[in-house]
Amino acid sequence: xxxxxxxxxxxxxxxxxxxxxxxxxxxxxxxxxxxxxxxxxxxxxxxxxxxxxxxxxxxxxxxxxxxxxxxxxxxxxxxxxxxxxxxxxxxxxxxxxxxxxxxxxxxxxxxxxxxxxxxxxxxxxxxxxxxxxxxxxxxxxxxxxxxxxxxxxxxxxxxxxxxxxxxxxxxxxxxxxxxxxxxxxxxxxxxxxxxxxxxxxxxxxxxxxxxxxxxxxxxxxxxxxxxxxxxxxxxxxxxxxxxxxxxxxxxxxxxxxxxxxxxxxxxxxxxxxxxxxxxxxxxxxxxxxxxxxxxxxxxxxxxxxxxxxxxxxxxxxxxxxxxxxxxxxxxxxxxxxxxxxxxxxxxxxxxxxxxxxxxxxxxxxxxxxxxxxxxxxxxxxxxxxxxxxxxxxxxxxxxxxxxxxxxxxxxxxxxxxxxxxxxxxxxxxxxxxxxxxxxxxxxxxxxxxxxxxxxxxxxxxxxxxxxxxxxxxxxxxxxxxxxxxxxxxxxxxxxx
Length: 496
Ligand SMILES: Cc1cc2nc3c(=O)[nH]c(=O)nc-3n(C[C@H](O)[C@H](O)[C@H](O)COP(=O)(O)OP(=O)(O)OC[C@H]3O[C@@H](n4cnc5c(N)ncnc54)[C@H](O)[C@@H]3O)c2cc1C
Prior knowledge:
Number of helices: 14
Strand order of the largest sheet: 5-4-14-15-16-13-17
Bound molecules: flavin-adenine dinucleotide
Strand content: 15-25%
Helix content: 25-40%
Mean pLDDT: 96
Radius of gyration: 23 Å
């Protein structure tokens, strides 16, 4: 079999997306391709994106990253889930944790057993059957395989890009600083041939990865790929962000607190808190939003509040010609479930798997785009669920969300769950039954019936099963160290 010549990949942009792409390619393809990353210090990065989901650990494992070093360098903390406050209704909270809830049987998920229990007088909340959720509530954490505790991280976005830059440069990635002023294309094929910098330097390549952020300098401004707008389902279009000093012990979860026209977040890092207020500008003015954020934060501000505008949706093709878009240039479904960095990692893994060593083949491009579309649509549905299934009627924004037409795929899932508690699962989907059920129950969806298989247990057996499972979780949680104590001994940042 013939091996083609060594290809050159040019990565445009050095935010989280650019350096994740560089690090992954350096590790997996470093011997067979040359890579150059161009970034502009003058433009800088978006410098948000600080909450993650558990698959990041697998990605780090693939890169051979040492967890303690990574956590110290990025001031990271552990994340067991997200606390959704005032989403179902004002003054009602629930946690979407990364844990399993209860023990399922081959034919029916655990929530069917819990629903029967409710009917038979068991009053314990669904949340009491998840170890991660209870540990989060108690502010506790430990790394454990038995019982397994599933977790992700909160991290400092700027420090993370720096950390991956060091990793990539140590593995041979070339970095060029400069502002791209022109994207050159081949007249015949339409492929990108080179990037011209303000300094006059030209960077040529065989393949280009667009990580230039929302503007999509290559994929959109040069290749005019097109964008599918999802603002009719995800109407928030703005965020004010600000960093504050920490106050008290760090929580092992993100807080997402709904307000009259969106929500705000608290992301606890070791040395500071990340805060942001996401909103729909049609229902809340920018000045009001800024005031709402400033009035709600607890610690002293260490940055000025900064406005970020966005449009939810996806790039029509993540791979077009000889260019793949990653990160914000490929689309954005808002940060509610911390899915953007995850999409960068799955995007680069997919690209490496389908790497066009022998030239670009249409079927490969089509398959890449098909998988990318499916993945982002599944995440979109999960996020739309949070907005749509609510009892809130206190503002025009929530009335809009409650009554909006939702994607058919999501409507189908909600129907299945409402009618007979079926939590539909698509192969390979990121958020599993445990996530869908925690959010459905958390937002107040109560099914009309459950699977009859649960009657294979007698009432006595079911009662013992539910009671013992819950007790075991309580016993484990009692013995766990606090999140703060675990961080202090495992990955504490050096005091400055
Ligand atoms: C409000 C908000 C909150 C978010 N929260 C989360 C979260 O909690 N979790 C999560 O997973 N994701 C979150 N995200 C998404 C996350 O921030 C991004 O996915 C991530 O930071 C990747 O950004 P990026 O690298 O694509 O873009 P950027 O960080 O914008 O980087 C763009 C890069 O391109 C360079 N560039 C641009 N133009 C040029 C040019 N002409 N010449 C040279 N270089 C250029 C810039 O200098 C920069 O290096 C959030 C996003 C927003 C808007």
